[in-house]
Amino acid sequence: xxxxxxxxxxxxxxxxxxxxxxxxxxxxxxxxxxxxxxxxxxxxxxxxxxxxxxxxxxxxxxxxxxxxxxxxxxxxxxxxxxxxxxxxxxxxxxxxxxxxxxxxxxxxxxxxxxxxxxxxxxxxxxxxxxxxxxxxxxxxxxxxxxxxxxxxxxxxxxxxxxxxxxxxxxxxxxxxxxxxxxxxxxxxxxxxxxxxxxxxxxxxxxxxxxxxxxxxxxxxxxxxxxxxxxxxxxxxxxxxxxxxxxxxxxxxxxxxxxxxxxxxxxxxxxxxxxxxxxxxxxxxxxxxxxxxxxxxxxxxxxxxxxxxxxxxxxxxxxxxxxxxxxxxxx
Length: 330
Fold this sequence. Notes:
The two termini are 37 Å apart. It contains 13 helices and eleven strands. The protein has two domains: 15-229, Type I PLP-dependent aspartate aminotransferase-like (Major domain) (Aspartate Aminotransferase, domain 2); 234-323, Aspartate Aminotransferase, domain 1 (Alpha-Beta Complex), CATH 3.90.1150.10. The protein is globular. Strand 10 and strand 11 form a beta hairpin. By secondary structure, it is of the alpha/beta class. Keywords: Lyase, Pyridoxal phosphate. One of its GO terms (cellular component) is cytosol. GO terms for molecular function: L-allo-threonine aldolase activity. Homotetramer. Pfam families: Beta_elim_lyase.
């Protein structure tokens, strides 16, 4: 990053940014791209490009991160109507999408506009959308003149887990972004991709949201390094997630099926214990272990770069000590 060649990104003159965008477009099979500070900005910009009037409907899985954990982004920033679809592991079927869209039309009804998909699913436990499901979802979207947007925060986890290329996953999308600060380990940065016309419009909203940057090649260089060197190591995160599930599965106060763990996200439930998930998360945080309590009984752990096999054993031991009512080990 220190040695990065830089230029005016706004004028398209930062060579490191340009190399990053070109590489990502090739990997995803898209025509054009734009560098963004974060994935959240990618979602906001993409939704604003696609939504044509206030109130347009965006369809998510019910617990999608962009709809529930992004400071009210669909309503507050985009002015859209989010529609949540109840589904297993964050993956809805073409039939479920069609049912959510419905058949009613009228001047008083918001227009269906976007199908937003997380690859992999966040609160769905890191599940991978199958290519066949994406294809069937596209057929429904085309019938209703909708577009498909992919939140690809963990797209490369899906690629490593299945050995299916990113291009195959993205073939059925109109816009998609990838993140470099999750498992890939860069400090920050994301690239949003789509057609040239889509990216030309995205630039307008990027400016409006304060995303235009100068000499930002220092950040793009970190993203390039992560892209070129850290994708294959995501398999290690998946192995560590599976290890955590295996270590927890026989605990009398934990409900988890290791077969449900597809990538690097572990979700488990508490069972027959006086501790709530919030209390357990608070106790673990005091030992430098951060888990997210999703409700009174459910917690999420995400494995990423920098977490070793030894760390996984430490986390498992700390959870078991806390649930047994013992003092956490030092």
